[in-house]
Amino acid sequence: MENKNSFKYFVFKEHRWLLYGAIVVLIIHFVLIKLLYPHAISDIDSRYYVRAADLAINVDMRPIGYSLFLRWIHFFTHKDIAVVIIQFILLECAILYFYFSLLYLLRTGKFIRYLILFGLIMNPMILCINNYVMSDGLFAALTVWWFTLMLWFCCCPKPSQVYAMAMLLICLFAIRYNSMFYPVISATVVLFSKIGWRVKLAGLALGCLLFWGFIRYTTSQYYKLTGQRDFSPFSGWQLAANALLMYRHLPDRKADIPPSYLQPLHQLVLHHLDTAATPDSIPDYILRNYFMWDIRSPLQHYLYMRCPNMDFNSFPSDGGIQTLRGWVSMGKLYREYGAWLIKKHPLAYGQYYISQGLEWFVDSKAEFSNTFDQGGFVVTDRIKRWFGYSSQWVHSTTFKGYTFIVFPFIIGLLNLLLILGTTGFYYCRCHTIVSPIFNWAIALNAVFWLMNFVFLVTLAPMTLRYALPILILNLGFVPVLSERIYHVTVTTQ
């Protein structure tokens, strides 16, 4: 006899028409999107991922996970629609799993459940992100799977959930290092759970082993490539770029004397900043990616000086192994230089970088667009070959109904509502009358949001696509918090 209290019965019996309706709507949206955008959209980041997949290399400028994902699909088919379909299925299934888990565990009202579902399956950004050859859709899908699995673990912990979380975490880490704080949350949840210590220790040991193995393997691959051990050259470039955004504001730069091995780079930086435009004439938000990628930046200039044999005509995303070798070889040096600048001026870093990081988080920048006034876009020759396109011109629609233009405001508004809702939840003492799993869910989401906020504000310049996992979770938790606060305030009047 089927258990009427089970999650399976709740989804496939009690709410089957809600599930079927959501699936039908998603299928219609997918067909419509593919009619408007016949091919996957390739952006600047797509070049890096396809380059690594095409060269069949095991390390690249960015984490290698998404390139391995592309290689795996390419083994079966060269068609870009396969990438889009798999990304779409993974993300939408994760969202439906998250959605029905919220309904089952937190017992929302009828209006709220329809409101959440509408926001999740009618959202243009969530729907269209899967049509990009970029890691964002896959990363968001695995993040939502991981977060929902933690919700279930808080409710009814099982050994299989611990091992599944460990596997999801290593996949997330291989795709994007933004997930480096995820294991901290998972380990804390596992340690404070009621599951047996044998399972706790076995799960933590598995996670540590997976991460140790991945880090060791990646470091060894960079050593083979450059002759120096490094795990993430990209983070070195990023740290130096962040530090230079701060350093351009300081008036008395000549008083700083770095270690001897950093002197040549530092002199080049000083000359560049002395002759470049001041922060008053060109604000930092315009230069968020300048020091990292612009050919005129001192970091790029110093790279050219150190690696004169690189193929700079195709730099940085379309070159071969020699181009990659030169770029990653600078990561360790730039990390040390960026760390030296920040240690030298910690207060200035807080004033001129972190404070602006807060502004960028509130008003995130859209790095990419899904509207094409010319009816298409140009791809590189490598992407053309990889997906078997007939030309480098890829046709698309001029339709703007799925535009991302309003999402910086929407994401900022949802973040504000989440802060107010979470604060109001505890201020109104809602936590004293709800179930333990409800409290766990709110606390878990608050911790995840806060750690993500700290990471993006202090280390990685915020862009719109980085907000996708938070957008999905906010669309679920903001209505739930609002409903609970409303019920408490009404019943106490």
Average pLDDT, rounded to a whole number, is 88
Number of domains: 3
Low-confidence stretches: none
Which term fits the overall shape?
A: globular
Fraction of residues in β-strands: under 5%
Order of helices and strands: HHHHHHHHHHHHHHHHHHEHEHHH
**How many helices does DSSP assign?**
22
Number of strand elements: 2
What's the alpha carbon Rg, rounded to whole Å?
Answer: 24 Å
Descriptive notes:
This protein is an all-alpha fold. It has 3 domains: 7-156 and 371-492, no CATH class; 157-226; 232-362, no CATH class. Helices cover 67% and strands 1% of the residues. The chain contains 22 helices and 2 strands. The protein has helices at residues 7-14, 16-36, 44-55, 65-76, 80-106, 110-121, 124-128, 136-155, 159-175, 182-191, 197-226, 233-247, 263-275, 290-293, 298-306, 321-329, 331-344, 346-362, 381-387, 407-427, 436-458, 468-492, and strands at residues 376-378, 393-395. A two-stranded antiparallel sheet has the order 1-2. Helix 21 (436-458) packs across helix 22 (468-492). The longest helix is centred in the middle third of the chain and has 30 residues, at 197-226. The two termini are 44 Å apart. The mean pLDDT is 88.
